[in-house]
Structures are given as C-alpha cells and as structure tokens.
Write a structure and sequence with these properties.
This protein has a domain at 32-92. It has helices at residues 33-46, 52-66, 72-76, 80-90, and strands spanning 18-21, 24-27. Strands 1-2 form a two-stranded antiparallel sheet. Helix 2 crosses helix 4. The longest helix has 15 residues, at 52-66. It is mainly α. The protein has 4 helices and 2 strands; from the N terminus they run ββαααα. A hairpin with a 2-residue loop joins strand 1 (18-21) and strand 2.
Length: 110
C-alpha cells in the first residue's frame, strides 16, 4: 500500500494573525517559499550599506508583503513604536502582549 501525504489538508501550525489599523482588519499572509526567497534577496541586496531611511523603506516594503491590504501611506503615517510593534507581531512565536489574550473580535465571546 502506498504512503500518502495530503498537503491540501495539512494544518500550517500557525495561528491567523490579524492587525487592526485605522478601523480595518488586515490578515497576515502566510509566507510561501517564494516569498521567503524574495524577502531574503531584498535584504541581501541592500548589504550592510543601508542608510537609516533606506532601512525603514525596506521595513515598510516587507510589512506590505506580509499585509498586502495595507497601503504604503498608512504605514508611512505610523509612529516608530507602532511600526516596530507590527514587525514584532509578524514574527512566529511572538505573543501579542499589548492586545491581551488572543480573541477573535468577530466572535465576541463565542
């Protein structure tokens, strides 16, 4: 009997992460292998010669790749602590301490 691996029904293991910004909810897009490679290339292409402004522009680009429904101008209007908090929030295993327990606001106590 053949061994069968059903990737279509394999759980990702990662909980859905939703960011609320300016009254809208934005779901973090799961990172594919292609996304990982492209992000890595973007970072490596910059080398160690980034000016501070370029570093922040790269951070904005990477956040937009993870949250494609957030407009660049929305991200550019954030404070530095807010931007850093989003970066922390996108990292696997990082708890969202500022929002308390993870509850889906759409279910309201269900």
């Amino acid at each position: 009997m053949p061994t069968f691996l059903d990737l279509d029904n394999l759980p990702t293991g990662a909980a859905e992460r939703v960011l609320k910004l300016n009254g809208r909810e934005h779901t973090l897009k799961p990172m594919s292998v292609a996304d990982f490679i492209e992000n890595t290339r973007m970072i490596q292409a910059q080398g160690n010669t980034l000016e501070l402004a370029q570093e922040f522009e790269l951070m904005i680009t990477l956040i937009q790749r993870g949250f494609p429904t957030i407009a660049k101008d929305e991200l550019m209007g954030l404070t530095l602590p807010q931007l850093n908090r989003i970066l922390d929030f996108t990292q696997p295993g990082e708890a969202d301490e500022s929002a308390g327990p993870r509850k889906n606001p759409r279910t309201r106590g269900k």
